[in-house]
Amino acid sequence: xxxxxxxxxxxxxxxxxxxxxxxxxxxxxxxxxxxxxxxxxxxxxxxxxxxxxxxxxxxxxxxxxxxxxxxxxxxxxxxxxxxxxxxxxxxxxxxxxxxxxxxxxxxxxxxxxxxxxxxxxxxxxxxxxxxxxxxxxxxxxxxxxxxxxxxxxxxxxxxxxxxxxxxxxxxxxxxxxxxxxxxxxxxxxxxxxxxxxxxxxxxxxxxxxxxxxxxxxxxxxxxxxxxxxxxxxxxxxxxxxxxxxxxxxxxxxxxxxxxxxxxxxxxxxxxxxxxxxxxxxxxxxxxxxxxxxxxxxxxxxxxxxxxxxxxxxxxxxxxxxxxxxxxxxxxxxxxxxxxxxxxxxxxxxxxxxxxxxxxxxxxxxxxxxxxxxxxxxxxxxxxxxxxxxxxxxxxxxxxxxxxxxxxxxxxxxxxxxxxxxxxxxxxxxxxxxxxxxxxxxxxxxxxxxxxxxxxxxxxxxxxxxxxxxxxxxxxxxxxxxxxxxxxxxxxxxxxxxxxxxxxxxxxxxxxxxxxxxxxxxxxxxxxxxxxxxxxxxxxxxxxxxxxxxxxxxxxxxxxxxxxxxxxxxxxxxxxxxxxxxxxxxxxxxxxxxxxxxxxxxxxxxxxxxxxxxxxxxxxxxxxxxxxxxxxxxxxxxxxxxxxxxxxxxxxxxxxxxxxxxxxxxxxxxxxxxxxxxxxxxxxxxxxx
Length: 688
Known about the structure:
Blueprint: E1 10-14, H1 20-33, H2 40-53, E2 57-58, E3 62-63, E4 66-69, E5 76-86, E6 95-104, H3 109-121, H4 125-133, H5 137-148, E7 194-200, H6 207-221, E8 225-230, H7 241-246, E9 249-254, E10 269-272, H8 274-279, H9 281-292, H10 308-314, H11 320-353, H12 357-367, H13 378-394, H14 397-410, H15 415-427, H16 431-450, H17 456-459, H18 462-500, H19 506-519, H20 524-536, H21 546-571, H22 578-592, H23 600-605, H24 607-627, E11 631-632, E12 645-646, H25 648-672
Parallel strand pairs: 1-5, 3-6, 4-6, 7-8, 7-9, 9-10
Antiparallel strand pairs: 2-3, 5-6, 11-12
């Protein structure tokens, strides 16, 4: 097996800068210089994005920045002992021992087991003491190899204590770093409390296992039996059901969803970020013991499990804004395939069938076949089929968004009410914003109903019948009876306002339309501007090109946000997460196809920067298209309906200019408009 660490990957007693960013970049450069990573920037961006989600400093002057990255060629450890400690967010101060763990996206299980063993060793004071006392790079390598090989290094056998022995409190030190799963939990006498725990972090390499060992050690000190299930990258062996049944309380130290949380239904639960399991394990054990004796303690719901966003909210330190953001991001992550797949199919339909395929697609797909081709031949038929499939896929966008926002709040029982509320929002013309509101309503209502104390015989009906029924009635009823009319009135008012401005300055109208197209990315304001443009197309002619100019303005401005986000991820990818960079690749084609929703993942994650930046570029594009008389006789299709665009050169120039301006604006905002840091113990990241 490839050696995880070499002397070339060890830095002793050097000053690598004043911030985690400086240290991580230096170590990423070291990894790339040894040929273990294909590029520095990609590895640094992934590692620093992970650091920004949850700080990797742990007690004892240690930090473990880590990531999975496509830039990594082989699993690698790089270590630095700093002459000037750097604050990595640990509660007890700066870190001087830095271990940088870089794993490939497809790292094999054996390598991941070794990496997790190293992370567990770092909470042992003898081992870290030996690392600080080592005088050469070779000694460091020997110590590390001894830790991951389940035996102390030869020269330090009596000093490091870096073995992988287990503890009597419930963790055996198996090769995968897992807790034991025997149903025969140890007991030291009558009345001894039994606890179970689950630890998990997004990467599943370091924090997962360090939290497990810290909790076990803390429980051992007070004579409590604690068994841990580590849901990490090196494998997860579930706790035996008998062990769970015998437990008095549960600890979830997690930053991601707990797999199989329904196994713990009814148990008193303490829920916190995984890093708290490292920083405050004794306190979490005491809280779990108190919960076990408290009949009013929070319990794992019987209908399955709340998502991590709700569990984290139960901890007093989390703000409501963080909870809402995480629920929204869950919805967006599930919505993306509908946007990408449907949008690309619609673009293919325009390319094959022409810009008027929207008018004939339904008739063509229902009345024709390969043996009965429509007028226009095979291209029209295939274009209609592709467009219709894409159009149907896109019609799930708002219901999927709402459904999985509700899922993030109330787990599986929230999906049906959420999808229903999303469909109602779409029917009412509420669009993207209505979907968010409907999903939040459905999820919250489903969660509240799921928390009701009901007889045991009724529990089985709750998730499959009662919760979906009641939550759908209430959430969708609120949309129909309370929210629908205000949204409709807003839409009608904006339509009338735009119609009244037709004779005003063309440039001013272009700016307004550009702002509206970029304000909510497919939501009500965007749809009002688009509907205004489409409705006027029938009045366009060679002598009255104003309606065609408005259509071109709306289309060009609507293309700017996804294209700008795609360009921004290329210009400065370290400002974006790995998921956002992947979304950026799809956004190129979505933007070119005039699918503004391609920018929604970026706007949902960072609305206060992305939306204003998009509006700046969209307004500029709108002004340019109206000022130069660009026209479009096609209602959709983006660059793929170039044959229906008048003054095509200026159409392209206006889009390019707006895209560049928006991309530079969002990068500037991400660089200089920095949000205030949140205490690291309270940070709970979300995975898209």
